[in-house]
Amino acid sequence: MTALKPILHHIDNIPSHTGKFKPEKSSVYYIHHRLRFHISSAKCALWWIIFLSLILMLFFLSPTSTTTPRRRHRTTISTGISNWKREIKLSATPCSVRNHVVLVTGAVGFIGAHASVALKRRGDGVVGLDNFNPYYDVTLKSARKSNLLDPEGVFVVKGDINDGELLRELFDLIHFTHVLHLAAQAGVRYAMINPNSYIKSNIDGFVNLLEVVKSAVDQPAIVWASSSSVYGLNSKVPFSETDQTDQPASLYAATKKAGEAIAHAYNHIHGLSITGLRFFTVYGPWGRPDMAYFFFTKNMMNQKHIKIFEGANHGTVARDFTYIDDVVKGCLSAIDSAKKSTGNGKKKKGEAQFRIINLGNTSPVSVHKLVRTLEKLLKVKAKKKVVLMPRNGDVPLTHADISLARMELGYEPSVDLGTGLKKFVKWYLDYYGDEKSSWR
Ligand SMILES: NC(=O)c1ccc[n+]([C@@H]2O[C@H](COP(=O)([O-])OP(=O)(O)OC[C@H]3O[C@@H](n4cnc5c(N)ncnc54)[C@H](O)[C@@H]3O)[C@@H](O)[C@H]2O)c1
User: Fold this and answer.
1) b (16+ CB within 10 A) / e for 131-169
2) CA of residue 280 to ligand 1 center, whole Å
3) Percent share of the chain, pLDDT over 70
4) Of these four, 17, 51, 66, 128, which has the most CB atoms within 10 Å of its CB?
5) How high is the pLDDT of residue 199?
6) Is 29 a catalytic site residue?
7) Does 317 sit in the ligand 1 pocket, CB within 6 Å?
8) 172 has a pLDDT exceeding 90
C-alpha cells in the first residue's frame, strides 16, 4: 500500500480536464517532471498488469467459471466431475441376471420416479435424467428425488434431452441396454399458455434423443410414453391401437401423435427397437398436481369450488383411471419383452421391433364418481360447479382396449379407482398435512 501511494498520489494530481495540463516554464523542472511522469506511468502500468492478472487467475480458478459449466448445470452433486462419473457408473451397475441398464428420462416426474424405483429394486442399473422444469411445483420433483430415488441409489443427472452433448457423454460413459423415455411436456391445457414447450420437449427433444440412440454402437431398445390423447375426438370405444388417430383435440395430443410417426421413421430407417405406450390417466401417490384428482383434492381440502366438466347435452365426462403401480408393471414388461435394436450406428442389419400398446384400466369412471369417492375418503363435501367442457384439449371419454397389452406384456391391471384413490389420499395428507398445497 505504501509503495502504491506515490503512484496514486501522482494519478490524483493529474487534472481531470486534459486542457489544463501544461508544462512549467523551467526546462530543468520540466525534464525532471517528465522523467518522473514516465517512471510513474511505467510503475502504474506494471501494477495494473499484476492486478488484472490476479483477477483473471481468480476468474479461471473459480468453480462458477464458464470453463466448467457442466458441473453446475447437470449434476445433482456439487463435487467434481470424476465423482459425478463414479456416481453414474454406480447407479448404472445392474445386479440381476437380466443385466439391464436403463436410462430413464423424466426420472423425477410422477411416472419416472416410480418406474426408476421399481427398476432399481429388481436389480436393473438405472440412471435418471430430468431438467426439473417448473411446469408444476419443483419442490415436489425434488421431494420425489430425495424420498424415492436417493434412498434406492438412483442417480439423477440434471439436464435436458435437448442437450445432445450431454446425452452423447452419457452414452459414451454407460452402455445402456434400454431407454425408458418419459420426459415430456405433459398436460393438455397448458398448451394455451406455452405451446412451444410441447414442441421443444415432445418433438425436438425426442428427435435429439433418437439421434443419439441411433448413433450408439450397440443401440439400446426404447420404450417411451405416448398417450391415450392420440385417440382425440374418436367416439368408437374402447380405443384400440388399430383405430385411426387423426383427430387430436390438443397440441399435446398432436405432439404425441407426431412422436409416434417420428418413432416409426427411426425404427424403419435406423433399426431402433421402439415400443410406444399409450398411458390412460395415470394417478396415485406422488402424482401430478395439474391432474383433476389431485387439484380436486387440494380444493376440497381448502373448501374451494371444483369445476366439473360435462359434455354436450349434459353428457358425462369419464376417464379410464389407471393406477401408477399397474402402469409401472406395464413399463417393466415392455422393457423385458423389447427385442434388440438392429442398427450399429451406421446401418440397420434387419427389421426391428415396433409396437404401440395401450396401458389403461379398461373400466372408465365418471368424474362425478371420482368426486364422490374423494368426498368419502377426505370426509369433505365438495363445492361443485358443473360447467360445459371447454374446447381447449379435453375429450369426453377415454376407455382402453387392453387386449394387445395382455397378449404382448402379460399386462393385467389390478387396482380399482377406490383402492388407488385411498392410497393417493393417504399420501396426500401425509405429504401436505394441514398445509395448503400449491402446484405452481
Ligand atoms: N400421467 C398421465 O396420466 C399420463 C398420461 C398419458 C401420457 N403420459 C406421459 O407419460 C410421461 C410421464 O408423465 P408424468 O405424468 O410422469 O409427467 P411429469 O410431468 O410428472 O414427468 C415428466 C418429467 O419430464 C421432465 N422433462 C420435461 N421436459 C424435459 C426435457 N426437455 N428434458 C428433460 N426432462 C424433461 C419434467 O421435469 C418432469 O419431471 C410423459 O411423457 C407424459 O406425456 C402421462
Assistant:
1) bbbebbbeebbeebbeebbeeeebbbbbbbbbbeebbeb
2) 13
3) 80
4) 128
5) 98
6) no
7) no
8) yes
CA distance 335 to 275: 9
Q: Whose CA is nearest to atom 38 of ligand 1?
A: 109
| Residue corresponding to grid cell 389403461 | 360
Residue 436 within any structural domain of the chain: no
pLDDT at 439 over 60: no
281 lines ligand 1 (CB under 6 A): yes
Asked if 424 and 284 touch (Cβ cutoff 8 Å), the reply is: yes
Of the CA atoms within 13 Å of residue 258, those in its CB half-sphere come to 16
Q: What number does the ligand 1 atom closest to the CA of 130 have?
A: 34
Q: How many CB atoms lie within 10 A of CB 334?
A: 25
Tell whether the model's pLDDT for residue 35 goes beyond 70.
Answer: no
Residues 6 or more apart whose CB falls under 8 angstroms from that of 195 comprise 251
Domain assignment present for 215: yes
173-to-85, 87, 92, 125 alpha-carbon distances in Å: 8, 11, 10, 13
Residue 393 confidence (pLDDT)? 73
Residue 234: give the domain boundaries: 76-280+324-362+395-414
Give the position, in ligand 1's atom list, of the atom nearest the Cα of 279: 6
**Residue 235 located in a structural domain:** yes
CA distance 100 to 221: 11
Q: Is residue 440 part of a domain?
A: no
Q: CB of 141 closer than 6 A to ligand 1?
A: yes
Please tell me the predicted confidence (pLDDT) of residue 80: 59
Instruction: Let me know: does 293 contact 308? Beta carbons within 8 Å.
Output: no
> What integer is the mean pLDDT of 51-62?
58
Residue among 73, 105, 111 to mutate when testing ligand 1 (max atoms within 8 A of CB): 111
Among 252, 283, 323, 411, the active-site one is 252
What per-residue confidence (pLDDT) applies to 349?
87
For residue 251, pLDDT over 70 is answered with yes
Helices (H), 187-311: 195-198, 206-215, 251-270, 292-301
The domain that holds 173 is classified in CATH as: 3.40.50.720
Q: Cell match 393417493: residue? A: 424
Phi/psi of residue 410, each to 5°?
60, 30
